[in-house]
Amino acid sequence: MDLKNRTVAETWAKPSSSAKDLPKQLTPDHRSFTSFNNQQQKWEDTSLLDFNNGIQPPFPEFNQTSKAPQNHNSQIKGPDQEDMQSNETPDSNRFQDWDPRVMLNNLSFLEDKIHQLQDLVHLIVGRRGRVLGQPDELATQQQQLITTDLTSIIVQLISTAGSLLPSVKHTLSTANPAIGQLGQLGGVLFPPANNLNGGVPQQNSGGSKVSDQSNQIELTENCGTEQNYAAEEHEAKDDDDADEGENLAPGSYEILQLEKEEILAPHTHFCMICGKGFKRDANLRMHMRGHGDEYKTPAALAKPNKDSSEPMLLKRYSCPYAGCKRNKDHKKFQPLKTILCVKNHYKRTHCDKSYTCSRCNTKKFSVIADLKTHEKHCGKDKWLCSCGTTFSRKDKLFGHIALFQGHTPALPLDETKPSSVPSDRAENNESKLGNIGFNFSASASSGNAVQNMVDVKGAVDDPTAYFSPLNFDPCNLPGFHEFPRPSLEESDGSFSFLIPDACNYNQKTGGESGSNDLE
Amino acid sequence: MTSDSLKNQRQKHNGNEEALQNSSNSCPFESLTQDIIFAILDSLALTHDSLSLKSFSLTSKSFYYLESLHRKSLKPLRSQLLPRILHRYSSISRLDLTLCPRVDDHTLSSISSLCKSRLRSIDLSRSRFFTSSGLSYSVTNCSFLVEIDLSNATTLTDSAAAVIAEAKNLERLWLVRCKLISDIGIGCVAVGCRKLRLLSLKWCCRVSDLGVGLIAMKCEDLRSLDLSYLPITEKCLSSILRLQSLEDLVLVACVGLDDDGLRTLKHGCRSLERLDVSNCQSIGHLGLSSFTEGSTCLRLLVLSYGCSVTAVAAKCLQNFSLLQSIKLDGCLVTCCGMKAIGNWCASLVELSLSKCSGVTDVGLCSIVETQKELKKLDITCCRWISYISIDSNTRSCTSLTSLRMESCTQVSKEAFVLIGKCCPFLEELDVTDNEIDDEGLKSISSCSKLCSLKVGICLNVTDQGLISIGMSCSELAELDLYRCLGITDVGVASVAQGCPKLRVINVEYCNKVIDTSLRMLSNCLGLKALEARGCPCISSVGLLAIAEGCRLLTMLDIKNCYNINDSGMVSLACYSQNLKQINLSYCSVTDVGLLALASIRQLQNMTVLHLTGLTPNGLASALLAS
């Protein structure tokens, strides 16, 4: 498949990926829809207006679903909407004085997508004409495909429209804690397409943020899997339709590419109420408890569970830096596995190394965790190679020498060992940071103090990019399972005062990082 | 032509003065070409006879010059004279400084500036007082150094090892007992000396897995590696066993190696020929079998003082078809284990079971009956074997050349008759502390190739047996008669007459041995060591005879010979210029004798306990004079 085809395919892949996420995001919402039925009814009644205004009538059957999210937003009146936008739509910071150009950008993008969808529907119509004996299943699948794409379009539209309505965003107050998880909203849209119940889960998303697992499973079995399947199918179709080529992208994964600003943004989760940003969903949930008793229920505090049993297309990430080997346009493109990898890769490779070790004043790092790891050993490196590299462990030195030709172990100078007296506190912190992955999560939870300024800057020009925050949920990423997340939650959960504490602690480091990211 | 000149040389060897006279009168040697003389010198060098070389160079001026030109290796007595010696010998490539205990940096720098890149080998194993800076002179000036022996340099540190690493052409390196050299130094050597073929790190107790692993990784040509007494584990073994040409691996007393670790090794070393894992108590047969898996070339296996040799253990090793020699000294050996060894597919040439517990007649018989090629057998201190074992041994292993059976006290005297009858090729026999009698010795005297005979503490041996030995064993070079109380001058005399090649004789505590014996022994021109401790009848007269006749004498023990006095010392000082070691304790030697001894230049070791005639001043003057 040539490059051109591929890029085209990717543009499609992104929306579809978002669509694919929807069921996943949706799952938490499925839990206890029963309790919210009444509310749901209300919603449906209320405001279809928004949607109708925004979108042409070509898809009347979706009216209701599209309404739903809007309704939900308006009804619940949480900062939800605002936060969402701040994350997902570019220039969220310009709510107050909205930028027509950005709006135009978004609209034209939406237009493109609608056109594409239109083509797709045309195609389906054409095929139907030809192949009469299509099984019903296929037809429903196609329907679902369209549904998912439409959903994403609608969601985008809503968010775009939302930026025009400052009053809305201020009045909105929602119980939905999971910001940035557009999927929740989007996901809600699906069910109507499949079954009547579909509308209900959405409501749940509004009402209680955290899912009860048992309930969730039932529902996901019903609709989630199907939707997911549809999404994949859709994607495959996209490829076919969008470009001449028939082929899928090499490898069975889809490539996502975050923009620079997103990568450098320190927070991905925001409080609907106060707007505070967090790097980890868990921390956000801990924070939410301060906003009322309804956030203290076990259900609200539980981890939004992802049903990993569903077959999913692998996600891989591309570095936005052109010419980088991790960039998808590179000849020997090597994708990055997780968002975390993207963040660390981008900072390490394409950013200034702005953290200097305070002890040796020579080593510089761009990832704060790297600095911490280094500081742990700085001054203790007594094993020296002839090339000047120092090692804290003899076996590492010998491994290095074994690897390189001509390098020799250098005789240690007679000078006494450097007096390294790290503060207890630093030691404690370091001991917590077991590995890079954990470091990241720790630093993700850090920087709470600076959160607000970041999302402001987090605006992205490319509207497509707004998907990425969706996809980024640490719980989701396979790599994260190994990280000592439970311990973190545990500590957060048992000590509510820990959060401010964490803020303090992080101000040294996280604050620094935040400002740095904003440069 | 060459043979003629060789004959001439022999003459010279025998009669030094004659040769000198010849050369001065007619100079028949002047006509010889340089090539021929070099060939002569080469053949002389093979005999390791420094005296004949010396006499050769004294023949004439041209010989003197040619000899100095030809000489390649040098073993100087004193380091002080080294600069002058090296001026004379301009083509020295091998320098053995083991006789120079004091070699400081200055000496090394003068050596290196004189020898330059000619020097290939230097032995500093007995020398002290040099540091890494002295070594660096040698290494930088003598860039083609191939061999360095730095054993016992206990003060050398990693900086010295880093200096050695500059010797890029180094192939053989001994660092035995360099206790201060650590992984870092060894790492330097590994990176610098890529051509290393032999490396001995015995007792370098600061070297661990990392250093050894790096050696194995960087020095791919290693043939021989000695890692004895190192705190290594299986981690470095895996890379060692990957060496393509490793033949010789010594792992004595590597206590860090155990079965669990060795079992993780996936493969053995294919090229390995000699393996020594003695004193590794925690290596059992399981570890050993995984460790040696694939080592099909294995010829020598030393398992001394290790795990017990049971049937299972012996079966683990049965597939080495080339295995020739196995040493199980000090192991617990079971009867089944010995039977399994007998069934090995290898045909053993050498078997050592010395000090093994559990060796019985049944077991030993089952081995010797199948291993008919056995040439060397060591059953020292196997106290439970009897006539039966020796019987079956001598019947099946007729090509036996070496039999050591010290302290096999249950073997009856008839067995030794069998040995003499059935093992005609015997060269070495150790029957110390056994029941052997004159009949046995008479029978053994039929082994015409016998060169070493030890019959110490064999109280049944008398002159009769010794006479028969002296009659027929003309090759005898070493005779141990320690505490053979039945021996008199007659026996010693017959040996001295019949065995002109005698080099070492021990007549300690044979109190019937008198000066006559010594006078007879003085006919053995090659005698190097005479141990006559506790022979009260020996006097200075006998010593004079020895000193006159045995000019090569290097070791003399006359402790408790009360009758030896200063005149004996004077005669030694006159004639025995090669004497290196002497024990004079309890003799009647005074200051005069000691002062006389001081003139012997090579003397290195002198024991003077309980010399009643010795005063402090005398000792001081003797020490100053030496």
TrEMBL record, chain A:
Q: Which GO terms describe its biological process?
A: response to acidic pH; response to aluminum ion
Biased composition, Basic and acidic residues: where in the chain?
Answer: 21-32
Molecular function GO terms recorded = zinc ion binding
- Residue numbers spanned by region Disordered: 1-97
> Where is the sequence biased in composition, kind Polar residues?
62-76, 84-93
Q: Where in the cell is it found?
A: Nucleus
Q: Which residues cross the membrane?
A: none
- In this chain the C2H2-type domain maps to 269-296
Identify this protein by name: C2H2-type domain-containing protein
Organism per entry: Dillenia turbinata
Automatic annotation (TrEMBL), chain B:
GO process annotations (BP)? SCF-dependent proteasomal ubiquitin-dependent protein catabolic process
Q: Name one GO cellular component term.
A: SCF ubiquitin ligase complex
Alphabetical list of SMART domains matching this protein = LRR_CC
Which residue intervals make up region (Disordered)?
A: 1-24
> Which InterPro entries does the record match to this protein?
FBXL15_LRR, Leu-rich_rpt, Leu-rich_rpt_Cys-con_subtyp, LRR_dom_sf
Residues in F-box/LRR-repeat protein 15-like leucin rich repeat domain copies: 128-283, 334-497
Origin: domain of life? Eukaryota
Record protein name field: Leucine-rich repeat
